[in-house]
Write a structure and sequence with these properties.
This is DUF2157 domain-containing protein. Keywords: Membrane, Transmembrane, Transmembrane helix. It comes from Buttiauxella agrestis ATCC 33320. The protein is mostly helical and about 350 residues long. Among the domains are: about 1-40; about 45-185, no CATH class. The protein is about 80% helix and about 0% strand. A two-stranded parallel sheet has the order 1-2. The longest helix is centred in the last third of the chain and has 28 residues, at about 310-340.
Length: about 350
């Protein structure tokens, strides 16, 4: 069995623990350890990182192409609708190629996902050209995001691709933000709610839907991505809400920080609830989000309350001490886990 150095260390620790507890004898331990073969170089991780970097470079290249009017005119010297059709055909070909490779060579997971992701990029470009072709000056771009969400959702679901499903959820959030913004005339409030409160509700609904549809999403390997995006929408919105409250920027400048304290408490309660649930269910993702955003909340309040009134030497000294204590505590937990 080929394993990495880290995996070998964990397996040997486990076998040693089982031997001491009498689960296996020394002969069985040696027999199992002889089947371990250390892989000196993690080619799988290199493959994943290489494809990520390649996709990032492709995004930069396509973005540069779109920004260059001369090249766009040279390569796509057509009307918006014709460009959209060409880009749609390219994206459809990429999707067909990616799904065909998934059926023929499912073990080439990273390259298959990279091909599907290129289809996502060309779909986005296609939708931008459709938007320009159908633009009436109303500024309502929400239908394009909804169409993109439907396409990415179908591709991500059929392809069992968490990466493309991530773009589906990003497009869904963009649809919600732009549709409520358009409905409010691009003002600060929609039904009395500014953007942070809207996305607190959006993140909560997305998280609830994620758990309601858990069996279906787990079957397609999409549950963790959905849960992470729901938590991310929820906590980032709560963080912004704890800073600005339900105010627009002009009114917020005259609001005292103490008037926003109830939003900070709500933020802390949400993070605490995540930590509490994670302790009950041993959910590492909930624990990570809860601890991370509880720390962000505390440090945000620290900057808000003490930045103006504290000497900067003392301010950063206290900040350094607190971060060192956090690091020391994290190191202690890590060393206990490593010992186990």
């Amino acid at each position: 069995m080929k394993v990495t150095r880290k995996q070998e260390k964990v397996i040997r620790h486990t076998l040693e623990g089982w031997r001491k507890e009498g689960v296996i004898d020394e002969t069985e331990q040696q027999r199992l350890e002889q089947n371990l073969s250390v892989q000196l170089f993690d080619w799988q991780r290199l493959s994943r990182y290489a494809f990520w970097i390649a996709l990032a470079c492709a995004i930069i290249a396509i973005g540069s192409l779109v920004a260059d009017e001369y090249l766009m005119a040279l390569l796509f010297n057509f009307g918006y609708l014709t460009r959209a059709i060409i880009l749609a055909l390219i994206s459809a070909a990429l999707y067909f190629w990616g799904f065909r490779r998934q059926n023929i060579t499912p073990e080439k997971r990273y390259s298959n996902e990279a091909i599907l992701f290129m289809g996502v990029l060309f779909t986005a470009l296609c939708l931008s050209q459709v938007g320009m072709a159908l633009d009436t000056g109303s500024g309502n771009v929400a239908p394009l995001f909804l169409l993109g969400c439907a396409i990415y959702g179908a591709i991500g679901y059929l392809g069992r691709s968490g990466l493309i499903w991530l773009f589906c959820l990003l497009a869904l959030g963009s649809f919600f933000g732009t549709s409520t913004g358009y409905a409010s005339g691009w003002g600060a409030y929609w039904l009395g709610m500014n953007y942070p409160i809207r996305f607190v509700l959006f993140g909560g609904v997305l998280l609830a839907a994620c758990y309601l549809l858990k069996p279906i999403l787990q079957q397609r390997n999409l549950f963790n991505t959905s849960k992470a995006m729901g938590l991310l929408y929820l906590f980032i919105a709560l963080w912004i809400l704890s800073i600005f409250g339900n105010y627009d920027y002009d009114i917020w400048q005259s609001v005292r920080q103490m008037e926003l304290m109830h939003w900070s408490l709500l933020f802390a309660l949400a993070a605490g609830a995540c930590i509490w649930i994670s302790l009950k269910t041993d959910d590492g993702m909930l624990r990570g989000f809860g601890l991370t955003f509880l720390g962000i909340n505390l440090y945000t309040r620290y900057f808000e309350m003490f930045w103006d009134d504290t000497n900067k030497v003392i301010f950063f000294l206290l900040l350094a001490i607190s971060l060192a204590l956090v690091g020391r505590y994290a190191e202690k937990i890590w060393r206990v886990g490593e010992g186990r």
